User: What shape does this take?
Amino acid sequence: MTTILLGPQRFTTTVGATVRALDVDGPIAMVNSGWEERESDDAELAGHLDGRGVNLRLYRRAFELLRADHGLRAVVLDHRSRHDELRAFYGLRLQSAWDTVFSVRHRTSRHGIGEGAERSALQALRDVDDWYAYEVARLVEQTAATDAFRGSAALATQRAEIAGLLASSAAVVVAGGHVGLLMETLRLFAVSFPASTPVVAWSAGAMAVCDPVVLFHDFAPHGITAPEVHDRGMGRVRGLVPLPHARRRLDLDDRERMAVFAARFPAHRLVPLDAGTVIRLGPGSTDADGRAVVPEGTRVLTTAGTVVTEGAA
Amino acid sequence: MSTQARTARLAVNQLRQRLPLDGPAIDRFIERFGCPIIEGERATFLYRGDVDEVWVRHRVVGLPDPLPLKRIGESDLWAVTTVLPEGSRVEYQIEIRKGDQYERFNDPLNPRLAHSPMGSSSVCAAIGYRVPDWVAFDPEARPGTLVEEQIRSKALRRDQPVQIYLPARFNRAQRYPLLVVHDGTDFLEFAAMKTVLDNLIHRLDVDPLVAVFVPPRDRLKEYPNHAPHARFIARELVPLLTQRLPLFDTPEARCLMGSSFGGIASLSTAVRYPGYFGSLMLQSASLVFTDIGFDHGGGPAFDPVVKFVNRFREKPSAVVDRIFMTCGVYEPLITPNRSMVPVFRHTGMKVRYTEARDGHNWENWRDRLGDGLSWIFPGPQKFVYE
Assistant: This one.
């Protein structure tokens, strides 16, 4: 199984060269539903793929499907509404738990209590993430089990068509954009990339193929400032959390903040994906637990709050 | 550098050293420096004309009003220099006296104007003031649409006109928060609010939202704690929009906003329907109160306001979750606004309060929209990774 994660493609475009280096023949499936209604503005992307790109049009398909199938639409709207509410409660709990970690770290400890308190505060933060992930998974299961979902002939037809296109593709590219909508369309159409088909993904696309999807923006004007788990990803790459635009979106100079961010996900490597980044995860790039082993040269955010290059002396 | 040395170096003082002045020399001076002349934290206002007296008229609390200009030598050029701290923005006019005739108008030497329902004024922007870049039309920003409607109101016993803003890419398969804007027509006309919403949503600073712009008919009657107005907003307008549009039907997704008396209309509506709205955006709200007696100095129009605010202060209660408050430090309402912050906070409501070196005017309220709306309805920046 080959998966290649790239940095943002807007100014440093490497997707064309990366796909050519795969040396595969045949159509390249394009997933760019994260571009929302600009999904069809894909000429530039198709050009990078030497005209071999076949757009799966997941956004357009979802739009038309939900317009025609009122039962399905009601279920999807209900799912969104429940997910929004869940996110709101998660945000409240998360921000408090996140702020608490820093309060505990800053408190003077004269009798050695501080270290244990910090460990416990960090665990409480992870517990909030786990609660949210559990509830999201439950919500996804409930939605998938509805009659509208299981009984929709139109949805089944679309899913089969997409699966057919993927089966006949030599590779898949997954572009960036709105990661929430990208995940929603991937899930609606039960998209699964065949293990033998190479996948090249960047920005939001890279987040979607990993697991979990973690949202972050240290410089957003307002809202929940802590990084947030949003959803399960596709899990094609496990044990890795991509951080697209890390230099622009993360306060990398704030070592303490970065250290807490990394420590919050002990089973994952947090990998900045800035312009020009290429992380190739080929066959054998996993450990015994199936977690990704990043190649040498990969930049990783550590629990010391610094970004280090894997394998560097 | 000493204050004396700084003053000596002001352009107008250097001009004074070249007396007597002829017409062409004054022309060249005005052409070179414009008006007002901003030098560090000082502003020099000029007027040219054959008059007996000249004043700058303004509403900046702390500066003398009227602010007299002095004739330079025997010329027809008049000037006055005043302190103007960094980031300030002041609206003003020129008043002249010729014999027993007084006249007031915008500064003829200053092309920069601000507009309001009361007319226009000249604008003096100090060093460090910048119009936010999300105020101007951005061709990249997809425009939302404004739909005009008449809504039959039993509470108001009339057809109430409103303008409904639907964000770009409005989609019935999504749900949106609702912003109710008092003095809606003025916010659109004098605070460029449609352009601002288009831009802030495009930049992902603000969540795509539906806004309803509501103009008053009799503002002084309807805005200071008026039961029919509150009933119209909370029991007619919002339910109707929630029924017809894909809106989140929760208090957290509903915000009332307004400036000046519109702020009182927002707060008093929330007080009459506690828990129905999640947030308020109060800009230079007319939160006038008295601690003893009733001598508030605001005139009869403020009587119902003071009654309402005094009553609220006697028994403050949490009527929404969050309040974004802003006020200009140069307006008389700065003290009541500052005083109300701890009162609101004490109830448990979360309050974000900001001040600006500006006055009681529409461009001040426009400039604060980015901070306020992105706090109340944060945009989806965290979701987008291009």
Observations:
- Residues 297 and 312 of chain A are 7 Å apart (CA to CA).
- The domain at 3-69+152-309 of chain A is CATH 3.40.50.880 (Rossmann fold).
- Chain A has eleven helices and 13 strands.
